[in-house]
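Per reviewer request, we include the raw input and output of the structure prediction for the construct analysed in the revised manuscript.
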Amino acid sequence: MQGIEDLKYDANGLIPAIVQDADTGEVLMMAYMNKNSLADSIRTGKTHFWSRSRQKYWMKGESSGHTQDIQEILIDCDKDTLLIKAKQHGAACHEGYRNCFYRRLDPGTGQWSIVAEKLFDPAAVYGKK
């Protein structure tokens, strides 16, 4: 696929992908894609990624059922970051929150606090945290 080849991947063959709610503009998550996961995302209309920590290919929602339907894929001016606008079904975060950005820094204390409610219990879905 020509467009996939034109992108700038890092030394590990990965490109960051920011996933944004297509309707609200809310940033849901950031993950990495390789050429295969991007090609499958385009082909299926569902987001697929490469997990750096698990060294594993995965489709968003394959365990939880909380999938993302791709509405649009954009690249930045340097062709090294993707922006995926999607319809989120359920929670985007594997910790059970709507998005992965559920902690806010209190500049006065330097402490992080949780500023969102969990939509599901990860232990019930994944069998662990």
